[in-house]
Amino acid sequence: MAFTGADVVNVKAPGDKALALADGLKDLPFHRWAKRFSGLQALPPVMASPPTMNMSAVGGASTIPTPNTISKDSLLISRSGTWTQYSGDTAFNAPERAGAHISFKLTGRRFDIRGARVSGSTRGFSILVDGELVTKTPWDQFLPGLTNKASSATARHRFLCDFGANLVSFRCGRANIGTPSGSGYVVGDVLTLTGGTFTSPAQVRVGAVNGSGAIISLAVTDSGAYSVVPNNTVAVTGGSGTGAVLLVYWNRVNTTKKTRRIDIIADYGTMLGEINVDADASVTPAELTGAKLLFAGDSITEYQLADYAGGIWAQQVAWKLGAWDRSVPFGTSGRGWLATTPFSLDVAAIIAEAPDMLVIALGTNDASNEVNLASLTAEVTARLAELLEALPYLRIVVVGPFVDATGTYTSAIAAGVAAVASADQARVRFVDFHALGIYAAGSDFSASYGTASDVHPSQDGHDVIANGLALPVAQAFLSMAA
Questions:
Q1: What separation in angstroms does the CA of 208 have from each of 192, 212, 213?
Q2: CA-CA distance, 203 to 193, in Å (whole number)?
Q3: What is the pLDDT of residues 347-396, one digit of tens each?
Q4: 166 to 63, 108, 173, 262: CA distances (angstroms)
Q5: pTM
Q6: From CA 429, how far away is CA 363, in angstroms rounded?
Q7: Measured at the alpha carbon of residue 306, what is the angle toward residues 46 and 323, in degrees to the nearest 5?
């Protein structure tokens, strides 16, 4: 079954009954994803009030006094993607393919993390706070000066993310009456607490009184805002009576010291080391949930010419499908089904990753190198069969070439998908990217190399590809859920 631009309609997940009949496997991560899918999700917004970000000079020390240091390999840090210890400097981990991300929960006002660039001149990081991007600005414009370790063996920087000085305030959490208090009050009286230093005082409403108008019960209607609290035994003003005294419990409110989820996406060609936080801060793992979605591809998937690490089309599609937490971009420059380096080199590593959902976006290099069409079709069939046999619960969506002027190579790849054994047809689909008609080399959405057009998309191109592919890819996966 192939999906093209003509199939772009509203998508809803199959019903519970259909999922219950899905080979008795309704509790697998893929089926749980399908059951919960209710439409494409929005991409992460950019923070309206981002933290202050600074980058140290090469070799700069942490500016957090007496910090608590979290090792790069700590179990307090969750990881997604393919990370490995960097061979040239054991103090760092580096993403092996197309970028990867780490996630943790910070209860504190700031953190710094040590990082460096391994290759390339534009590689960098994307940081999200509670699901919002700090910035989409290219890293070298946002924090210029990141040194490449290829030119300096000691190149390493610290990136400080600071949410600002923590100010403590207080609010009325609960007000009690131990024994009936005061006299002459009536139900509904609004009373204002006295004492303390405040910008707005707390207020309570009388809920019940006895025969003499003594208060029996009340409720807080305005918790107030205090820099200095009064004693726990607090007199009140207002209402119809006099003499009431309340027993008050005060809640502490922090302006910046709170729990936030932090996600850091590292481009392929960068690396990350330990994290420092304040001594009174804490770090706990962020729970990464849902199906594992892996994107296999070429340099267009490996982060070529996107403005920010979260901007490649694969990251965007993962977000739109609600499957970003455990997503694995797996692009390699030069990859094709056959050319210039064959996809067969990736199969063992993909099997080891054991994804629940796999998108294979290859063929542009095959088309540009004019590989034999019959050999291309046979290779597609063979590699799909190998993956489906090794991973019995895997669902695969094959995306045709991003650049294929005539559609010839798209057709050869589609034929390879169609030739997969009939027993496995329920677990593989083809999306005809060429038929979508949304991208071409030399278009307004591709980059340029000098005066020549480039096959690689600009950031606008990544956006266009993601917007065009997300729904057909979602449809293709959903069609395999029942």
A1: 17, 11, 9
A2: 6
A3: 999 999 999 999 999 999 999 999 999 999 999 999 999 999 999 999 99
A4: 17, 9, 20, 18
A5: 0.85
A6: 16
A7: 60
